[in-house]
Records
---
Amino acid sequence: MDQEKLIYFKGLLDEKLHGLLEEAGKVCSDMRHDVNGDFPDPTDRASHESDRNFLLRIKDRERKLIQKVTEALGRIEDGTFGICDSCGRSISEKRLMARPMTTLCIECKTEDENQERMERQRGARSRGTFPS
Ligand SMILES: [Zn+2]
């Protein structure tokens, strides 16, 4: 991939990373605010707990995304950006535009998803055979 395109994708990823970090910061400060809140009613406290779990899940999801973006930026640095992790061929630019953090070309990704779907179907069938 030529330098100009790498710079373009780097910009794209940088922007994404900043957005995510900002969002994560917001969630963190919201949580601090909630923790200090006073909830005398147990019902309130229960819903407050699930709110906090929700926020923690978001944070977990964001943390993973932040990691993915950081890894993609690392791949730009070491020159492996845009190369499929699985087959070693280049990932199409169209795909990278839509998902700059991707590590798989569309063929490998499709294969991956088909396999996942098959495993899920197998799981569903075996659960059906042994009702709880
Ligand atoms: Zn591939």
Note: The pocket of zinc ion is lined by residues 84, 86-87, 89, 104-105, 107-108 (CB under 6 Å).
---
Amino acid sequence: MTLEKQDKHYVLQTYTRDYTNFVKGVGSRLYDENGREYIDFASGIGVNSVGHGNKTLTSALCEQAQNIIHISNLQVIEPQAKLAQKIVELSGYDMGVFFANSGAEANEGAIKIARKYGETHFDSKRYKVITLEHSFHGRTITTVKATGQESFHTPHFSPYPDGFSYEKSIKDVYKAIDKETVAVLIELVQGEGGVQPFEKTEIQALAKYLKDKKILLIVDEVQTGVYRTGEFLASNLYEIEPDIITLAKGLGGGVPIGAVMTKHKDIFSAGDHGSTFGGNYLSSAAGLAVLAVLENLYDRGVIAETHLYFEQKLEVIAKKYAMFFEKEVGLGLMRGLRAKTSNIQVSVIQNALKEGLVVLKAGRNTVRFLPSITITKDEINEGFKRFEKAMATI
Ligand SMILES: Cc1ncc(COP(=O)(O)O)c(C=O)c1O
């Protein structure tokens, strides 16, 4: 049986899969079973933040795996406490952290914190959460309902939980607030929605308004967090102080981990929330190793340099192929080219793979670039060389 047949027969077919079989990765290079090399501009949808085979990460994982992989959350877990401290210190916010295993789970935690806050802090219950129409917050029943993209609300999985509504833009959020609104949940750069950043001033004004009204601001940093937009958090870049922030993707460098952090440290009490695996020894050790690598690069100015280099290269491409792309979008190493049609988007992604370059789609017509934060100039140059080859046959 071929691998493709095996996959199709035994794995539930929830993804439209490509069947290139990657067997090895080094930095931002991937190798398939035939030894063919690919440049990775996707990093597992923004997950492999320190690339493939990073020595600091793999050594930390091997060492931790040889000692303890998992002990329940009923015991104190030293690397978990250290990771929470590191995240809080890097964020600059006075917050507490709960660890989960994915972005959706982190957002579930955020919504639970908001709901309990709304239940316990006001005379009459507040429970409604406002999100944005092009948002993406996860695939559990609640986070799919929190996701503003209508296509996700298929009747197959109904009934969904109550209390979510969607607005087209930030300025519409103000009008939608009522006395039952407890929180506004946003991404600062909408990832799945098309790599669309919001204006800093618009976000700062919203943050101030919500604070005055005692409505929580939840920032979903599942994709934007962990240096993806240049600072540790996009919230740092936007110079706001959210009430709740969620993280996942890049935090474990590929080891599943999610985190919800909040300045309302006393909302959850014992028994309110939990996770068997969340923040276990292995995933916390991964998080600590990833942050050690990235903090060092940040402090030496390497991340800023990489971001600038990638942006400049992409600008050249956007201009050169303006007949195919409307514009360049995104921030930091969360970038996209908005294609003129979705057919162009699909062809670019397929051609790129044929030329040995992995890129992603986002929204209906955006070609998305989410390289590892540790990508080198060499890898960037080679990737764009292949991208140009891919463009030759569009
Ligand atoms: C902004 C955002 N939130 C939440 C999620 C869901 O994360 P996960 O797939 O880890 O559950 C994603 C995943 O793409 C995301 O981009």
Note: Residues 102-104, 107, 136-138, 187, 191-192, 220, 222-223, 248 surround pyridoxal-5'-phosphate (CB under 6 Å).
